[in-house]
From TrEMBL:
Protein's UniProt name: Penicillin-binding protein 1A
One Pfam family here: PCB_OB
GO biological process: cell wall organization; peptidoglycan biosynthetic process; proteolysis; regulation of cell shape; response to antibiotic
Species this protein is from: Sphingobium indicum (strain DSM 16413 / CCM 7287 / MTCC 6362 / UT26 / NBRC 101211 / UT26S) (Sphingobium japonicum)
Source species, domain of life: Bacteria
Reactions listed under catalytic activity: Preferential cleavage: (Ac)2-L-Lys-D-Ala-|-D-Ala. Also transpeptidation of peptidyl-alanyl moieties that are N-acyl substituents of D-alanine; [GlcNAc-(1->4)-Mur2Ac(oyl-L-Ala-gamma-D-Glu-L-Lys-D-Ala-D-Ala)](n)-di-trans,octa-cis-undecaprenyl diphosphate + beta-D-GlcNAc-(1->4)-Mur2Ac(oyl-L-Ala-gamma-D-Glu-L-Lys-D-Ala-D-Ala)-di-trans,octa-cis-undecaprenyl diphosphate = [GlcNAc-(1->4)-Mur2Ac(oyl-L-Ala-gamma-D-Glu-L-Lys-D-Ala-D-Ala)](n+1)-di-trans,octa-cis-undecaprenyl diphosphate + di-trans,octa-cis-undecaprenyl diphosphate + H(+)
UniProt EC number: 2.4.99.28, 3.4.16.4
Length: 845
């Protein structure tokens, strides 16, 4: 019984349904027999069916017009320098977003006259205009001609922002639907604002403000009437009205005058204004790129771009704050003057080193079969130095070569202006040139002469010691010849520039600057496979027991390895890692710079030494703001409240706290800096001594020598430079850090240091300054240090209770001074000093 109940219930429901249908049909039959009823019912059904089909074909899947309420057009990212001035932009679409109120009323009327004079009257669709467009489309079917638009401004916004630019009747209907919806969601002013900010107007300008800059180098508020009318005709087809071509110029004048006439017909300007505007020339400026100097910053700005992409992505699909669409504002510590000095110094140093070595070959090649002008322009290879230009060999005969430039112009390179010897063959460079080769030339009268881009390269970084802010960066000769940034990407052996950190580990583990270390033979058993490794100085000799200071100043290999061995390489590599240089294995060769690191890391490590061992992070960006000005990076950024007060309010001044943790004992860091000051005064970098200001630093040269270095600076700023081939090979036996790298550092930093006060390095609390004999390390009483480069008595920095206890009498100082002078004179008479050898043997492997 229980199981039959569901079946009975279902059967009863079906019966009731049938009875109801029969009853409805019986009641409906008398009405259906009437003709007028059948017509109404059929028509109503047809309308419902037509609406359903219309929705399925046109309206289904259309985007929601309400999304435009939050629409944000793609905007470029702008970088400001340390003074807050915009210096660079990352943009694929030149656009400046303005509000409706920022556009002059007359400019808006110019666009309405040219595009949609009934804009403020219709509800998204201009019916008469649409009927005319349909008729025009019908007459041109099969002709291959494109029908006139007939779209309102609202429809154009719908097309550009929501559905795309497909050419079909279907798209027109979709435009109309979306335009009607948009008019119900947005105000007329909001729609016009979207339109004026979005439309493409040629010259890579998107939006009217960008176009005003591209065509007239003005802001919209400064445009004259005839200029407004010209910009108003561009949406229909910027390529048709290009002022550069005679045909485009004639069309532009005719169409601009038509727009002025339409403004007069609409009553928006007077007859006198129309006549005056039509009498004016176009007045456009020559086409130019971004208003920012693309050459500014070079490697620095490219590195900022890389880091922004890592943080926020590159395209709009990557997020709302992408580099090329998010409209970011980046405040950087970039200093244009310091960058120019750094770039010039490194380039001149590379040219000086490379001089006399011959032509290094073409900088690149292009496919001549595809058209040299287009291929050269698309390569984006260029150079910015002393009027040099990149050219392509178009053709060559025995007397001259025809060369072409990216702007389409051509020139002549005579054979006698390209006689540099080609390094690979030894013959003249002219004989080795082939069509398609990209070379560098400079103007030589009415023709051109060959120039050589140095094959050797290098990198340089300048960083503040108290904040880690990177003020300048150069990663090669020119970033448009090679985007490879040797300041941040090139992993190179640091050579002897690593030694201050080896001695820092020794100072942290019981040694002092006056500790005696034997400069003598040292051999280490490396296992059954490698056997015994014996280290040595360049001359093969040794100087016997010497102070740590002397070993750093003269950069003695044997003393460094012995100090590392006594301290323990595990402690040494921990110190090196803590300073951010690299993560190395505890092998003695790393104490001589056999590991790999970058210029940026080494400069930052030296900046931490000058910062008394407190951690720093190299900063190429101070902060990043979104398009509305909100700081979105760093995440814990806080504004400095009270920093910009016009007048002091009597309260304590704002103070910035320390950012990084302590990674080295501050007393150890100061001891290392104090010792490294001696490298400038009487060591391997005396080329900098004539700057006559507190400086510390260290030269370095790796085995080969393949790399030459100098890193150092003042209490406020540190810089580092290295020179080497991209594919490491010997630079030549004479190349040393003190001879090649240090002069480049001097050329870049001397003008910078002249603008800074001569601030001494400040000792941290606890340091004891004691007078000692410079050569023996013994404590001296009754004698004061002098300003001589090599005084017998110096001030030395000691940690508490670590200073020497034994004393030396005044008369003994003179005797030891004479003996030291004899030793130093002997060393200087040698053809190559131990210091020279160290520069060659900075990396032992």
């Amino acid at each position: 019984m229980e199981e039959a109940r569901p079946e009975n219930a279902a059967s009863s429901f079906v019966q009731r349904l049938r009875q109801g249908a029969i009853g409805f049909r019986e009641r409906f039959r008398p009405h259906w027999d009437k003709r007028w009823f059948r017509w109404i019912a059929t028509g109503l059904g047809g309308l419902i069916l037509a609406y359903a089909l219309f929705w399925l074909v046109f309206a289904r899947g259309l985007p929601d017009a309400a999304t435009l309420l939050n629409y944000e057009p793609p905007l470029p990212t702008i970088v400001r320098d340390t003074n807050g001035q915009p210096v660079h932009s990352y943009a694929r679409e030149r656009r400046v977003q303005l509000q409706y109120s920022d556009y002059p009323p007359l400019l808006i009327r110019a666009y309405l006259s040219a595009e949609d004079k009934t804009f403020f009257e219709h509800h998204g669709v201009d019916i008469p205009g649409f009927i005319g467009a349909v008729f025009d489309y019908a007459t041109k079917i099969g002709s291959g001609q494109r029908a006139r638009g007939g779209s309102t401004i609202t429809q154009q916004v719908a097309k550009n922002l929501l559905i795309g630019d497909e050419y079909s009747p279907t798209r027109k209907v979709k435009e109309m639907i979306l335009a009607y919806r948009m008019e119900g969601v947005l105000t007329k002013q909001q729609i016009l604002e979207l339109y004026l900010n979005q439309i493409f107007l040629g010259r890579n300008a998107y939006g009217v403000q960008a176009a005003a800059r591209a065509y007239f180098d003005k802001d919209v508020a400064d445009l004259k009437l005839h200029e407004m009318a010209y910009l108003a005709i561009l949406p229909k087809g910027p390529a048709n009205y290009r002022p550069e071509s005679p045909t485009g110029h004639e069309r532009a004048l005719e169409r601009r005058n038509w727009a002025l006439g339409e403004m007069y017909k609409n009553g928006w300007i007077t007859e006198a204004q129309r006549n005056e505007g039509q009498a004016q020339p176009l007045g456009t400026v020559a086409a130019h790129g971004s208003s920012f100097d693309a050459r500014a910053g070079g490697y620095y700005m490219e590195e900022v771009r890389r880091r922004l992409i890592q943080l926020f992505g590159e395209k709009a699909e990557d997020g709302p704050n992408s580099v090329y669409a998010g409209g970011l504002w980046v405040r950087s510590p970039y200093d244009p003057k310091m960058q120019d000095l750094t770039t010039t110094a490194l380039r001149n140093g590379l040219l000086r080193f490379d001089a006399g070595k011959g032509w290094s070959g073409p900088v690149a090649r292009i496919d001549m079969d595809r058209g040299w002008h287009r291929e050269l322009a698309a390569s984006y290879i260029d150079v910015d130095y002393a009027g040099w230009r990149v050219a392509v060999i178009v053709s060559r005969d025995s007397s001259a070569a025809q060369i072409g430039f990216s702007d389409g112009s051509t020139g002549t390179l005579p054979a006698d202006a390209a006689q540099l010897p080609y390094r690979r063959t030894g013959g003249p460079a002219f004989a080795a040139m082939k069509p398609g080769d990209l070379i560098v030339v400079a103007r030589n009268g009415s023709s051109w002469a060959l120039r050589n881009v140095p094959e050797v390269s290098g990198g340089m970084v300048v960083e503040e010691t108290h904040s880690g802010r990177v003020r300048a960066m150069q990663g090669g000769f020119d970033n448009r010849l090679s985007s490879y940034n040797r300041a941040t990407q090139a992993m190179r052996q640091p050579g002897s520039t690593i030694k201050p950190f080896v001695y820092a580990a020794a100072l942290d583990n019981g040694m002092t600057p006056a500790s005696i270390i034997v400069d003598g033979p040292l051999c280490v058993y490396q296992g059954a496979g490698l056997g015994q490794k014996c280290f040595r100085n360049f001359t093969g000799g040794s100087a016997g027991p010497q102070t740590m200071r002397w070993g750093v100043e003269q950069s003695r290999n044997l003393m460094t390895v012995r100090a590392a061995s006594q301290t323990g390489m595990d402690r040494v590599v921990r110190t090196i890692k803590a300073m951010g240089i690299g993560d190395y294995q505890p092998y003695l060769s790393f104490a001589l710079g056999a590991g790999e690191t970058t210029v940026e890391r080494m400069v930052n490590a030296y900046a931490m030494l000058a910062n008394q061992g407190r951690q720093l992070t190299p900063k190429l960006m101070d902060y990043v703001q979104d398009r509305r000005g909100k700081v979105i990076w760093p995440l814990r950024w806080r504004a400095c409240d009270g920093c910009n007060m016009a007048n002091w309010d009597g309260k304590p001044m704002p103070r910035f706290g320390f950012e990084g943790r302590q990674v080295m004992n501050p007393m150890t860091a100061y001891q290392v800096v104090h010792i490294a000051e001696g490298v400038i005064q009487r060591g391997t970098a005396t080329v900098l001594a004539d700057l006559k200001r507190p400086l510390f630093g260290k030269t370095g040269t790796t085995n080969g020598p393949t790399n030459v270095w100098f890193v150092g600076g003042s209490p406020d700023i540190v810089a580092g430079v290295y020179i080497g081939y991209d594919q490491p090979r010997s630079l030549g036996g004479w190349a040393q850090g003190g001879r090649v790298a240090a002069p480049i550092w001097k050329a870049a930093m001397a003008p910078v240091l002249e603008t800074m006060p001569k601030t001494p390095f400040i000792a941290p609390a606890g340091i004891r300054m004691v007078t000692i004999d410079r050569r023996s390390g013994k404590r001296v009483y009754g004698v004061w240090p002098t300003d001589e480069p090599k005084p017998a008595v110096i001030w030395e920095a000691f940690k508490p209770e670590s200073e020497p206890r034994r004393s030396i009498r005044k008369e003994e100082v003179a005797a030891q001074d004479k003996a030291a002078a004899r030793i130093e004179a002997t060393v200087q008479r040698r053809q190559r000093t131990d210091s020279d050898f160290l520069q060659d043997q900075g990396g032992i492997y």
